[in-house]
Amino acid sequence: SRREGFSAIPDVKWEDVGGLDLLRKELDQHIVSRIKYPEKCERFGLNLEVGVLLYGPPGCGKTLIAKAVANEAGANFIYVKGPELLNKYVGESELAVRTLFSRARTCSPCIVFFDEVDALTTNRGKEEGSVIDRLVNQLLLELNGEDKRRGVFVIGATNRPEVMDKAILRPGRFGKLLYVPLPVARERCLILKALTRNRPLDASVDLDAIGRMEACNNFSGADLAALVDQAAQIALQDDLSESETIKTAHFEQAVINISPSVGPKQR
Ligand code: ATP
């Protein structure tokens, strides 16, 4: 459910995320441990709440891993799409940002996830005093309010880090840049394992071999999720006759209909 203002601890576990081990370590260090052990962090002089920017091609797990971070930390999670904060009526965008952070504070510890955060950037040749300018200023105000921000962590996601506002990429804001790449073959195998964790997979299926098939080259996590869904769908059809599990043949049939969604320019 993505009802506006809806916050809850997400049910995405680390086991649901395939690969991305280094990223996990970074996020553990910068966010999870700060939420779990605030006194320790303070004792070591780490007072500023951290903000992270996840960047990389679409469908490679930015949203997924942010939810897993919240789950691991036992924190609430608020999902916002950057463009949804933009409102042409005077003052409405600033109000939306203020309301968002006040909600986040009331349910802290809380992670606010800004999808498509590049929509909130002033570096686009827009005139001074535009809606975006004012919105970004309000955002910076909220991110700067150290005491007020206790327990509120921000994670942004973008496919286009190069258009981001420099002012927004400072420590305490979205200052920690972490790349979420397109998976390589080994990682595709790990993602397939995560995606089939709760499915009736036939014992004969070799996920390592499937992840390494040439047809899976350049597949994103989202493409692999589509592959697993299709294979399951085909298996279900078969089930009406005899199959009770997802078999290799189902994957081989499914892969024919899927092509990489991330083009060479986005990689
Ligand atoms: P976008 O930039 O389009 O918002 P994203 O990077 O946030 O994309 P997600 O929404 O996290 O991508 O991924 C989409 C779906 O693809 C996930 O819900 C999941 O099913 C699958 N997926 C992507 N990456 C992974 C991964 N590393 N492990 C397991 N599943 C993944």
TrEMBL record:
What is the recorded name of this protein? Answer: Spastin
Instruction: Specify first residue, last residue and whole-protein length for the fragment.
Output: 434 to 700 of 714
Q: Where is the AAA+ ATPase domain?
A: 48-184
Organism, by scientific name, is Parasponia andersonii (Sponia andersonii)
Q: Which domain of life is it from?
A: Eukaryota
Task: Tell me its family.
Answer: Belongs to the AAA ATPase family.
**Where in or outside the cell is it found?**
Cytoplasm
